[in-house]
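Notes to self after the Tuesday call (sharing in case useful).
The group wants a holo model before anyone commits to mutagenesis around the pocket. I volunteered. Ligand is coenzyme A. Logging inputs and output together so the record is complete.
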Amino acid sequence: MNLITRDYRPEDFEAVNYIWQQTGMGGAIRGDDQDVILRTIEMGGRLILLENTAKNEIIGTSWVTQDGRRIYLHHFGILPDYQGKGFAKILLDASLKFAKGTGLQIKLEVHEDNEIARNLYVKGGFKYLGDYNVYIIRKYDNL
Ligand SMILES: CC(C)(COP(=O)(O)OP(=O)(O)OC[C@H]1O[C@@H](n2cnc3c(N)ncnc32)[C@H](O)[C@@H]1OP(=O)(O)O)[C@@H](O)C(=O)NCCC(=O)NCCS
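Result:
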């Protein structure tokens, strides 16, 4: 298997969306469509893909966005058939290399039940920040 990391291109959307569905990271409610992806890239973020070039198959995604103050790591996932083989580390290394190059601090949210991801992130150098609650406003209709 020949694995490379590379940047997202608009024609990758379907394959990327498939990974997000398969790994439970997708959903229209989160608003993650083509326009949003391209906007985050314009703003200096990256959607880094892990590709199995032997099959022209995208097998992992790491969406690294930035707001000028911090980098955020999200939509980090590997296609189920390819999980547990050490490939997440390749994708995380590429993401952290990019983050380091920006000089900005990097932050992420992970569910406390997601032991695999928590292990991965801690091994990658992330430190637990504390017992914070996470909030979001999805729609402003009632405001
Ligand atoms: C999280 C995820 C990307 C890890 O991918 P993976 O291919 O299984 O990970 P790897 O094989 O590269 O393993 C990397 C590290 O993850 C941890 N890990 C992997 N499998 C594990 C398991 N069964 N139990 C505990 N930790 C595990 C270990 O720390 C491992 O490093 P190690 O082998 O040195 O111990 C993958 O499980 C996934 O896509 N999950 C669904 C999406 C998701 O939850 N993403 C995180 C959102 S915040």
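Two things stood out.
The pocket of coenzyme A is lined by residues 23, 25, 76-78, 83-89, 110, 114-117, 119-120, 123 (CB under 6 Å).
The longest helix spans residues 87-102.
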